[in-house]
Design a protein that fits this description.
The complex is a heterodimer of chains A (57) and B (268). By secondary structure, chain A is mostly beta strands. Chain A has strands at 2-4, 11-13, 23-25, 32-39, 42-47. Chain B is built from eight helices and 18 strands. The chains are: A mainly beta (57), B alpha/beta (268).
Chain lengths: 57, 268
């Protein structure tokens, strides 16, 4: 599945077996997106949040 | 002076170690101490005994962490506050110390923001954002309860469970908890006792580092030590005077951390 990057317009290849929550990145500018759903065979993306690594004990 | 001592969970697998308890009691003759403990290993063990298989997730940087769902945070609190914290309090009481066990949420001592999302690498090797569970990042430390106890010559023993901003209990990293507490108390020293004797880079023990050097060293040390260095730096940035990463599995580990060889001192 292909879609385009909101930031640079580059082509993002989303794997056919992508699942909700999967993070994909633009090969051109590195922007990361989260797959929020797959609608009629097309991925719906939103910019991925910056999430730090502080996961407790 | 006020000293915050963090005792890592790796040192507590068999209960409060006598070498640390004895030296802690000795140090109380001159200083006001706060002890913060870890205990992840015991949480995992107890959870499995209760039939709650622990799930571990791996971050994109390869860091393996517990996945803390609702049931897990309940077991976590039960073990951290109910068992490990109580065992330390009792071990110190047995030596005549006026130890008081609290968790980070008592008196809103540690307030954390719940991590609503986590990014993990799944079994297919791909990055996925998942519900964050009940871990938190400490956003505020309040010194009021700790100072009240210290003024009355009680010794606070703190479990790393924080108060979430929505009133929930959260699993927080014990080293970061110690750093936050040291900062809010403007502690003279923050001592991180662990199962290795200080920061080792290329086979060499680093005896002293500036905060700047400590930050640069993060990529040269193994996982576990990098988190300790980050916490040691945070303690200073939060207002503590200096941090020491030191061996906890030797005789007189606290005296050694102040004067001895097996340690790394981090200064502003």
């Amino acid at each position: 599945m292909k879609t385009s990057c909101e930031v640079c317009g580059g082509e993002i290849d989303v794997p056919d077996d992508a699942i909700k929550g999967e993070i994909v990145s633009c090969p051109d500018c590195g922007s990361e997106y989260e797959v929020t759903e797959i609608k009629e065979g097309k991925p719906v993306l939103k910019p991925a949040e910056e999430i730090g690594e502080d996961w407790g004990e | 002076m006020v000293i915050v001592v963090k005792v890592g969970g790796s040192l507590l697998k068999l209960g409060p170690p006598e070498n640390i308890v004895q030296d802690f009691v000795k140090m109380l003759e001159e200083d006001k101490l706060v002890l913060v403990h870890g205990g992840g290993y015991e949480v995992t063990e107890m959870a499995e005994r209760l039939g709650k298989k622990q799930k571990f997730v791996v971050s994109p940087d390869g860091i393996r962490s517990r996945y803390t769902d609702k049931e897990t945070v309940e077991i976590y609190t039960m073990v951290m506050k109910g068992k490990i914290n109580s065992e330390i309090v009792l071990a110190l009481q047995a030596k005549g110390v006026r130890a008081v066990g609290i968790s980070g949420f008592d008196g809103s001592t540690l307030v954390a923001e719940r991590k609503k999302r986590l990014v993990i690498v799944d079994e297919r090797g791909r990055k996925v954002a998942i519900d964050g569970g009940y871990t938190g990042k400490i956003v505020k430390a309040n010194s009021e309860l700790l100072n009240t106890l210290l003024e009355k010559n009680f010794v606070p023993i703190v479990a790393p469970v924080a108060l979430g901003t929505e009133g929930e209990m959260l699993n927080v990293d014990g080293d970061r908890a110690a750093a936050a507490i040291a900062g809010c108390l403007k502690a003279e020293k923050t001592i991180f006792l662990t199962d290795v004797g200080g920061v080792i880079i290329d086979g060499q023990l680093i005896k002293e580092m500036s905060v700047e050097e400590a930050r640069k060293s993060l990529r040269k040390v193994g996982f576990g030590m990098d988190k300790k260095i980050m916490a040691a730096v945070e303690a200073i940035e939060n207002g503590a005077r200096e941090s020491i990463i030191s061996a906890g599995n030797i005789e007189n580990p606290l005296t050694n951390s102040l004067l001895g060889e097996n340690r790394t001192v981090i200064k502003p």
